[in-house]
Amino acid sequence: MQKVHNLSAGPAILPQEAIQKGAEALLNFAGTGLSILEVSHRSKEFVAVVDEARAMVKKLWNLNDAYEVLFVQGGASTQFLMVAYNLLKTKAAYIDTGVWSTKSIKEAGKFGDLEVVASSKDKNYTYIPKDIVIPEDADYLHFTSNNTIYGSQFHQYPETRIPLVCDMSSDIFSRKIDATKFDLIYAGAQKNLGPAGATLVVIKKDLLGKVDRHIPSMLNYQIHIDKDSMFNTPPAFAIYVLLQTLKWIDKMGIENVEARNRAKAELLYNEIDSNDAFVCPVSAEDRSWMNATFLLNDASRNDEFLAACTEANISGIKGHRSVGGFRASMYNAMDIDSVQALVNVMQTFK
């Protein structure tokens, strides 16, 4: 069977060894004779999975016990609500760089005053705002690190004295960062970390307990901390495969993962910039390493290009319906040969 080059924006391309381990666990998890789909989430075997995954996140980001690692459900979309429920006391600051940050702003607006301190909406989200003035009386600053739909990315994070909250769903563990600059990081796993169903939350514990409102139990970070991510039945299979992906990243080394991602992005953007058939609408300094968006200068050839990609076993290249054109998602587990396959097709359109 020929390799299919999966450039889809999500669910994520995963390391083959993580998929293999997941397949084995579906049949016989940890020697129990039970499938990971039917094993008790309170069994010592599965509790060990959650404990190891929690420890692996802390190891990769060099975090101490001031931080708690949670595995919850509901994707990043539920986190838009949970962040504000748990943290917004009087006012919050948000940066608007695309669809997902806009959705987070909408949810947070139900809980208090909101100040959108910067936005790139004026140019259809094709750049990352700079020189942002952040109010020091805000409870926190929220931003989305990578914009899957529009193809922009923060390559330098905002500097602030107030708590920093980030949605890292689509570029989590794609490069080396100083995670201690953040007070809360969340990510839906399905973009770059594992199967849909699990959501990773990393939170500084002293951030909690400062709002007076009643928080529904399922949306209360402190309850999930107290219950070791077992307040309700967790998505066991998704967490297990997420752990295998974290172990793959650890074995690769985060610096090597970053180098791979940089090389893939450079290969594709160099082709876009040197090929007169294509154009990238995103500011060069703000282009995403994870999701490259580009257009054909002659849009009448779009179907022809998609057909050529299909012929080359390239999947998921069509752009988001709100943007059009094309999008190549180059997540951590993607090998550079998949990007080269796309570049080979693009060169026939010069």
Provide a descriptive summary of the structure in words:
- With 350 residues, the chain is of the alpha/beta class.
- It folds into 2 domains: 16-252, 3-Layer(aba) Sandwich (Aspartate Aminotransferase, domain 2); 254-347, Aspartate Aminotransferase, domain 1, CATH 3.90.1150.
- Helices cover 34% and strands 17% of the residues.
- It has 9 helices and 14 strands.
- It has helices at 16-27, 44-61, 75-87, 99-108, 221-226, 236-252, 254-274, 302-311, 336-347; strands at 5-6, 67-72, 91-96, 113-119, 141-144, 146-147, 152-153, 164-167, 184-188, 199-204, 278-279, 291-296, 314-315, 326-329.
- A 7-stranded mixed beta sheet has the order 2-10-9-8-5-3-4, sandwiched between helices. Strands 11-12-14 form a 3-stranded antiparallel beta sheet, with helices on one face. A two-stranded parallel sheet has the order 1-13.
- A hairpin with a 4-residue loop joins strand 6 (146-147) and strand 7 (152-153).
- The longest helix is centred in the C-terminal third of the chain and has 21 residues, at 254-274.
- The two termini are 30 Å apart.
- The mean pLDDT is 96.
Structural topology:
Elements: E1 5-6, H1 16-27, H2 44-61, E2 67-72, H3 75-87, E3 91-96, H4 99-108, E4 113-119, E5 141-144, E6 146-147, E7 152-153, E8 164-167, E9 184-188, E10 199-204, H5 221-226, H6 236-252, H7 254-274, E11 278-279, E12 291-296, H8 302-311, E13 314-315, E14 326-329, H9 336-347
Work out the oligomeric state of the chains in this entry. Answer: single chain
Rg on CA atoms, Å: 21 Å
Strand content: 15-25%
- Number of E-state strands: 14
Distance between the termini: 30 Å
User: Which class of the largest domain in CATH terms?
Assistant: Alpha Beta
Average pLDDT rating: 96
CATH superfamily of the largest domain: Type I PLP-dependent aspartate aminotransferase-like (Major domain)
Strand order of the largest sheet: 2-10-9-8-5-3-4
> What overall form do the CA principal axes indicate?
globular
CATH level 3 topology of the largest domain: Aspartate Aminotransferase, domain 2
Supply the number of structural domains.
2
Largest sheet: 7 strands, mixed
